[in-house]
Write a structure and sequence with these properties.
Blueprint lengths: L1 E5 L5 E3 L7 E3 L2 E2 L17 H5 L4 E5 L2 H8 L7 E4 L10 H4 L1 H11 L3 E6 L8 H6 L4 E6 L5 H7 L6 H13 L3 E9 L7 H14 L2 E6 L17 H5 L3 H14 L4 E3 L17
Parallel strand pairs: 1-5, 3-6, 6-7, 7-8, 8-9, 9-10, 10-11
Antiparallel strand pairs: 2-3, 4-5
The protein binds iron/sulfur cluster.
The site of iron/sulfur cluster has 11 residues, from loops.
Length: 274
């Protein structure tokens, strides 16, 4: 892995994601190197984009810029790690995520963290102290460590993510699971869905579901997802989401689909019935 250092003009950006006011990404590039990762498309440094997972840019003046910004910005919800993972391994050295969230929490912001790395447990003291202003989501695409290694080669194994989720939830922190992307043949099977729903029930987490989005770079014949493109495009997504939400209801777990165009713009189970 190669580390480079950059200066930024802004620390917080306006978020286009629902429920978030701002986005904060301390690092550009992501060592986890998930094969389906779309984040490269939002990365303006060509070298990082073309060597995804190998080069990480550390925003070295981030904390100084953030200190200035929070003096005049309206308080709100900050999504931490909306593009790249805020707890990827470089965070163990540079601690930009920890310093940023300390600053934000002490100035009245709410933070919403999304990660695939158990390094977050290093900050459990801080997160617990401010638990009413924090929520944490783990991306869990499968609970099979062996399969996950192919799709998310350098993220924490999902069994460890599940452990971390339980730890955070046991401290009273609001937790959620991002079950996405759903990839046909990898994690759309019943067993995977039941295991994820059971974990959500155990930890009192809600589940956000998202399917694979086909991107141009996947059309490259050498890309590992190239072979599933046709299947993904013709997959019965509406049926999938209907059945998954039915399961969620059975387990009394709150599930929110991020796709599948339900009728009447609703995300209730009934809206997915043809
Ligand atoms: S953890 Fe997230 S940002 Fe990092 S490579 Fe995987 S999908 Fe991309």
């Amino acid at each position: 892995m190669k580390i480079i250092f950059i200066n930024v003009k802004k620390a917080l950006s306006r978020s286009g994601l629902p429920d978030l006011d701002y986005a904060l990404n301390p690092y550009m590039g992501c060592y986890h190197g998930c094969i389906y990762c779309y984040a490269r498309l939002y990365t303006w440094i060509k070298e990082i984009r073309e060597n995804w997972g190998e080069i990480i840019a550390v925003k070295k003046n981030l904390i100084n810029v953030l200190e200035k910004e929070i003096k005049y910005l309206r308080r709100g919800i900050v999504g931490v790690g909306t593009i790249t993972d805020p707890y990827q391994p470089v965070e163990a050295i540079y601690r930009l995520t920890r310093k940023s969230i300390e600053l934000l929490l002490s100035h009245g912001f709410h933070i919403s963290i999304q990660t695939k790395n158990t390094l977050i447990l290093r900050d459990i003291d801080l997160l617990t102290k401010h638990k009413h202003s924090v929520d944490v989501g783990f991306t869990i695409t499968s609970l099979n460590d062996k399969k996950s290694r192919i799709y998310e080669p350098k993220a924490s194994p999902p069994s460890m993510r599940a452990y971390a989720l339980k730890q955070l939830s046991s401290k009273g922190i609001d937790t959620w699971i991002f079950y996405g992307p759903v990839i046909p043949g990898y994690n759309d099977d019943l067993d995977t869905r039941i295991k994820i729903i059971e974990l959500a029930r155990e930890t009192g987490s809600k589940i956000l579901i998202d399917r694979i989005h086909i991107k141009k770079f996947m059309y490259n014949r050498s890309h590992p997802l190239h072979k599933i493109l046709f299947i993904a495009r013709n997959y019965p997504w509406k049926r999938f989401i209907y059945e998954t939400m039915k399961l969620c209801r059975k387990y009394n777990v709150d599930c929110i689909p991020g796709f599948a165009e339900p009728s009447k713009n609703k995300t209730t189970l009934d809206s997915f019935i043809q």
